[in-house]
């Protein structure tokens, strides 16, 4: 994008202006808006507000990176693209007037509302809270019951039980993905607030608004005294130029660090060994599923029965270049491939035999009953074998972990929606 890219867009009317951003209609892109950040920083419902030169660009960089990270994981968001230094393009949404707050560590307003809880108390599972967006009343905390009873309707969608559950679940998943990402930079994501909207074109609930350094608390090495988020500004005794420089340096640090969250921490690969070229279709399913997790996958043909020396040579080739590898053995009839690999490599081996209806019940034992000292697992579905490999890599690569986490969320949401649809039909 170029610094003047937003000038190239035909802006329609201004739809909204908040404390830190403006939202414009896009004349040439129906169903889309431009979200333009402002150089203003506020605290305590704008009781304190200051100009901070460069804040718009910093906030826009931060939110664009965070949304890219979530979108690549598979979380549904309103974000479309970063357009310019200070603006991004998003799907037009009708906003749900709730701030969803998710906490891992007790601090801030939670301590005031829950006397007796010490700062640093950790929530397992995460603690969810919601606040109704109402500046006049200082965004009061709401219960689920209050939200349900309000019967909000946005873009033709009524916010009922199903929608509230989806937003609750999504908030937890989004927090976990970002928590995992920040952990790679030795940073604790303490808590976070997000908002959802209803996409006016698709009528889907999506993560909307922004996620930037005003949205969370970030403690490097879990140490509150090193906090990098907007709390630093809230905590200032008095606002001096020196103090504002320090605040700005923190914001810049976050916008630089957030770029690193998009980088994989470890690169792994899956190597599928098939006993015969006739197993290719089965193996292609494994490769395709690996692709969906961003994991490279090689296919090789080798038979441990007919060419054990070649099988072990291929094994040595993949062990010798230092790339973490999971082997998947695909062999029909008697599976010699998986057990031979498993007995001769320290890398994980997954058996994924292509089972046939006639002899399958007998053949499967060659993948299940092993001599001692062999640790290969057996997964029958090719997609599930790829998923298991992804779960192994997800332990050390937050990007793979995030794709698994988002996929789990999306499966849950689609079941919820299918149930709602079916109930509507039955009525």
From TrEMBL:
Signal peptide: none
Pathway of action: Purine metabolism; IMP biosynthesis via de novo pathway; 5-amino-1-(5-phospho-D-ribosyl)imidazole-4-carboxamide from 5-amino-1-(5-phospho-D-ribosyl)imidazole-4-carboxylate: step 1/2; Purine metabolism; IMP biosynthesis via de novo pathway; 5-amino-1-(5-phospho-D-ribosyl)imidazole-4-carboxylate from 5-amino-1-(5-phospho-D-ribosyl)imidazole (carboxylase route): step 1/1
UniProt keywords, alphabetically: ATP-binding, Decarboxylase, Ligase, Lyase, Multifunctional enzyme, Nucleotide-binding, Purine biosynthesis
Gene3D superfamilies: 3.40.50.1970, ATP-grasp fold, B domain, Phosphorylase Kinase, domain 1
Xref: SUPFAM superfamilies: N5-CAIR mutase (phosphoribosylaminoimidazole carboxylase, PurE) (SSF52255), SAICAR synthase-like (SSF56104)
GO CC list: cytosol
Assembly with partners or alone: Homooctamer.
Name of the protein described by the UniProt record: PurE domain-containing protein
Protein's organism: Oncorhynchus kisutch
């Amino acid at each position: 994008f170029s610094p003047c890219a937003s000038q190239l867009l035909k802006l329609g009317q201004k739809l909204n202006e908040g404390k830190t951003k403006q939202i414009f209609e896009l004349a040439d892109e129906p169903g889309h808006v431009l979200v333009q950040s402002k150089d203003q920083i506020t605290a305590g419902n704008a009781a304190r507000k200051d100009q901070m030169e460069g804040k718009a660009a910093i906030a826009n960089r931060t939110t664009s990176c965070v949304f890219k990270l979530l979108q690549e994981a598979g979380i549904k968001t309103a974000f479309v693209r970063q357009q310019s230094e200070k603006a991004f393009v998003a799907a037009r949404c009708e906003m749900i007037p709730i701030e969803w707050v998710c906490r891992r560590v007790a601090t801030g307003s939670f301590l005031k509302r829950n006397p007796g809880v010490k700062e640093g108390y950790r929530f397992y599972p995460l603690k969810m809270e919601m606040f109704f967006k109402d500046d006049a009343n200082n965004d009061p905390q709401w219960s689920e019951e209050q939200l349900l009873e309000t019967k909000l309707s946005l873009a033709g969608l009524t916010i009922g039980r199903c929608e509230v559950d989806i937003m609750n679940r999504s908030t937890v998943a989004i927090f976990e993905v970002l928590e995992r990402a920040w952990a790679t930079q030795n940073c604790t994501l303490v808590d976070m607030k997000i908002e959802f909207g209803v996409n006016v074109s698709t009528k889907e609930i999506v993560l909307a608004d922004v996620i930037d350094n005003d949205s969370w608390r970030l403690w490097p090495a879990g140490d509150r005294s090193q906090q990098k988020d907007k709390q630093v500004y809230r905590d200032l005794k008095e606002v001096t130029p020196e103090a504002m420089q320090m605040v700005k340096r923190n914001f810049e640090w976050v916008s630089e660090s957030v770029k690193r969250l998009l980088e994989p921490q470890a690169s792994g690969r899956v190597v599928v060994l098939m006993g015969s070229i006739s197993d290719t279709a089965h193996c292609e399913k494994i490769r395709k599923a690996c692709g969906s997790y961003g994991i490279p996958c090689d296919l090789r043909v080798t038979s441990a029965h007919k060419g054990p020396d070649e099988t072990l040579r291929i094994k040595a080739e993949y062990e010798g270049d230092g790339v973490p590898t999971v082997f998947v053995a695909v062999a029909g009839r008697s599976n010699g491939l998986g057990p031979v690999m498993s007995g001769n490599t320290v890398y994980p081996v997954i058996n994924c035999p292509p089972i046939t209806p006639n002899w399958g019940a007998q053949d499967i034992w060659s993948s299940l009953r092993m001599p001692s000292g062999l640790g290969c697992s057996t997964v029958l579905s090719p997609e599930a074998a790829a998923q298991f490999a992804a779960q192994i890599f997800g332990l050390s690569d937050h990007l793979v972990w995030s794709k698994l986490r988002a996929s789990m969320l999306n499966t849950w949401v689609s079941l919820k929606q299918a149930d709602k649809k079916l109930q509507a039909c039955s009525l």
